[in-house]
Specification:
Largest sheet of chain A: 2 strands, antiparallel
Number of helices of chain A: 15
Strand content of chain B: 25-35%
Order of helices and strands of chain A: HHHHEEEEHHHHHHHHHHH
Helix content of chain A: over 70%
CATH superfamily of the largest domain in chain A: MetI-like
Shape of chain B: globular
Strand order of the largest sheet of chain A: 1-2
Bound molecules: adenosine-5'-diphosphate, magnesium ion
Oligomer: heterodimer
Structural class of chain B: alpha/beta
Helix content of chain B: 25-40%
Radius of gyration of chain A: 24 Å
Number of domains of chain A: 2
CATH topology of the largest domain in chain A: MetI-like fold
């Protein structure tokens, strides 16, 4: 198991290299002049200025030189100070957020993570439970209910669902407010008496013993959570159900029953672990869906996460920010896949021991 | 006189499918005495597996359903007892080995885990005792290094080895009956012979009764005392093994015997082989289910389904026609 994880970890830099080459490659669709505009706050007015930028940033140099520069940044010959450099984790300056991209990610990502965790953990656990139950009691009540919800779940898109929630619960019933926190809660959270242990607001408020702030954060997050989880949960139920149904037809399940094992042992110890393999694979794929869903959900609910910032940047052609996010997303995807691979190996000895 | 272990009467099992209700087992009756080995023969799809799975109530339901019959084991009807009670029969008193050892072991659990389960469940051993016993069992079925190999997973075993594990598992609680459902069909020939030898040896050592299912009459010859031949969910012939070979009565049995390769005959002298395949019955047949493939089929065979009748001492067959004369039996 240990060597398996190490081998997988060694792959991470290779994959990241691939991501940067891809993104850099996409940049080449822009002419040097267009690209020069990316490096400055205002679009330069005259040719001299443009040529100056092209020279300074080496935009007319061969591709590999440009790529190298993009990776390691530019070191001032006099002061020896480095600016930029993806390799050093410096993603540049975000025009739309008026701060560095790094800063933007640092302040926004915890919010997104907070939202995503609350959206994903219940989806996966409840989704799997429902899927297993639906398969075990095929055509029973839970199965029928799951099927109906699954049809609803797959038949209208996230933003429609999000808007619907917004219309009903926010505009009409006024049960849940959009945004991140109420004003009174913000004041406490940003005061010095509130410790930021994890940067995840819900967790920190619990760690600070502030249940009132936890509930306030939850009230703001509930609709985004439902919208974001809505994307995946029907898929999870469906895949778990069909995988479980297939597993229950396997001969080793009959073997388990023929041994005289009680049905709950047959289901939970013999069938379910096998049925989880496709679900783990699905979880890997769902990370991509989720990253897209985050953009839509945060935009619809005006939730200050990384997705909203990305949508903002994209709308205003803030390519530097978008690039930074793209690489960051790539990193998350790679890490998520790593987790999925490890989980897969953990369940399946054929993968672990090969 | 050895006592009666299992007495199955008029067993009927159906499957609901999108195409209709499949009548897989249609009133099968047979018995099994203590220590006896019974061969069950028939082509693929004749209802052999479903019959045995029904006896242990292991039919997937839905779509399967046992619609009639009884299966009395030591005086108790397996088909009527509570699901809790039958659990204590499965694996403890009646165990099964399946056809494909590549799929009948759980790929994510260690061999040790799978072997110790029935021991802890039925015999009440603790983990340590069960581990020791599992290693013994593995040695018993001829797997060397048994202690270490308990930690391995099925994919680290070859097909033949896995079938040995299945046999060890089936015999772990000293059952009275071992049902072996084509345990050698998926294995190659040399391994087949080894597995057959292994079961023979263990049967003689442990003294359990064996139901050996196969589509190969040749395998049954050296193994069973009595044979039943199945076709279309019916038993169509039943006889002691020597009698069946010497004096087969049903055209289907003749066909099965005829398609056996024999050392003393060359290729051209083989009796015949049967064209076609066994039927999938969506209705209980009004005619003999074998008639479409039978070269003796006479008028009566198309009008009525023959029941199993006595054709000699301890010999029964379900056929109107005497194949020796080509006339109706008197
Ligand atoms: N799960 C099932 N669903 C539908 N039909 C089945 C199922 N299992 C078996 N059958 C049908 O029952 C009949 C007997 O099958 P089986 O007992 O497996 O034959 P075999 O003699 O080869 O063991 C076949 O016609 C088969 O199609
Ligand atoms: Mg079979």
């Amino acid at each position: 198991m240990g060597t398996y994880i190490i081998r997988r970890l060694l792959l991470v830099p290779v994959l990241l290299f691939g991501v940067t080459v891809l993104i850099f490659g996409m940049l080449q669709f822009l002419s040097p002049v267009e690209r020069s505009a990316l490096y400055v706050r205002d679009i330069p007015k005259n040719d001299n200025a443009i040529n100056g930028i092209i020279k300074t940033y080496g935009l007319d140099q061969p591709l590999y030189v440009q790529y190298w520069r993009w990776m390691v940044g530019r070191t001032d010959t006099v002061t020896g100070k480095r600016t930029g450099g993806i390799l050093f984790g410096d993603f540049g300056y975000s025009r739309t957020a008026s701060t560095t991209v790094n800063n933007l990610i640092l302040t926004r990502f915890p919010n997104t993570l907070d939202l995503t965790l609350w959206a994903v953990v219940p989806v996966i656990s409840v989704g799997i439970w429902l899927g297993v139950q639906a398969a075990v009691h095929q055509n029973g009540f839970i199965d029928q209910a799951a099927r109906i919800f699954s049809i609803i779940g797959t038949s209208f898109p996230t933003f429609v669902f999000g808007l619907l929630m917004l219309l009903i619960f926010y505009a009409n019933l006024q049960w849940f407010p959009p945004g991140r926190l109420s004003d009174w809660a913000s004041q406490i959270v940003y005061s010095s008496s509130f410790h930021h242990y994890t940067s995840l607001l819900t967790i920190d408020s619990l760690l600070n013993g502030r249940l009132d702030i936890f509930w306030d954060a939850m009230r703001h997050m509930l609709m985004p959570i439902l919208t974001l989880s809505y994307i995946s949960w029907a898929t999870f139920v469906r895949v778990t159900r069909s995988s479980m149904l297939e597993t229950l037809r396997m001969e080793y399940v009959t073997t388990a029953r023929a041994k005289g094992l009680p049905e709950n042992v047959v289901i939970n110890k013999h069938a379910r672990p096998n049925a989880m393999l496709p679900v783990v694979t699905l979880a890997g794929f769902q990370v991509i869906t989720l990253l897209g869903g985050v953009v839509i959900t945060e935009t619809v609910f005006n939730y200050p996460g990384i997705g909203q910032a990305a949508a903002n940047a994209a709308a205003q052609l803030d390519v530097i920010t978008v690039l930074g996010f793209a690489i960051f997303n790539g990193l998350i995807l790679i890490l998520a896949n790593l987790v999925v691979d490890v989980m897969y190996a953990f369940i399946d000895p054929r993968v672990r021991l090969s | 006189m050895p006592g009666l272990l299992l007495d199955v009467q008029k067993l009927e099992t159906t499957f609901k499918t999108p195409e209709g209700v499949v009548h897989a087992v249609n009133g099968v009756s047979f018995d099994l005495k203590e220590g006896e080995t019974l061969g069950v023969v028939g082509e693929s799809g004749c209802g052999k597996s479903v019959t045995m799975l029904s006896v242990l109530r292991l039919i997937p339901s839905p779509p399967g359903k046992i619609v009639a019959g009884e299966a009395s084991f030591l005086g108790k009807d397996l088909l009527k007892m509570s699901s809790e009670d039958i659990r204590h029969v499965r694996g403890a008193q009646i165990s099964m080995v399946f056809q494909d050892p590549m799929t009948s072991l759980n790929p994510v659990l260690t061999i040790g885990r799978q072997l110790t389960e029935p021991l802890m469940l039925h015999v009440g051993m603790n983990q340590k005792q069960a581990d020791a016993r599992a290693a013994e069992l593995l040695s018993m079925v001829g797997i060397p290094n048994s202690k270490e190999r308990l930690k391995d997973y099925p994919h680290q075993y070859s097909g033949g080895m896995r079938q040995r594990v299945m046999i060890a598992m089936a015999l772990s609680c000293n059952p009275q009956i071992l049902i072996a459902d084509e345990p050698t069909t998926a294995l190659d020939v040399t391994i087949q012979a080894q597995i057959i030898e292994l079961v023979k040896r263990l049967r003689d050592e442990l003294g359990m009764a064996v139901i050996w299912i196969t589509h190969d009459l040749g395998v049954v010859a050296g193994l069973a005392e009595r044979v039943i031949v199945m076709y279309g969910g019916y038993i169509i012939e039943e006889a002691p093994v020597k009698e069946l070979y010497a004096n087969p009565q049903h055209p289907y049995t003749l066909g099965l015997l005829g398609s056996l390769p024999r050392v003393d005959e060359d290729e051209g002298a083989r009796l015949f082989s049967i064209e076609g395949a066994p039927p999938v019955l969506y209705e209980k047949p009004a005619a003999c289910p074998f008639a479409p493939r039978c070269k003796w089929a006479a008028e009566k065979c198309w009008k009525e389904n023959p029941v199993l009748m006595n054709v000699g001492p301890e010999h029964k067959a379900a056929c109107f026609v005497d194949t020796k004369t080509g006339r109706y039996r008197s």
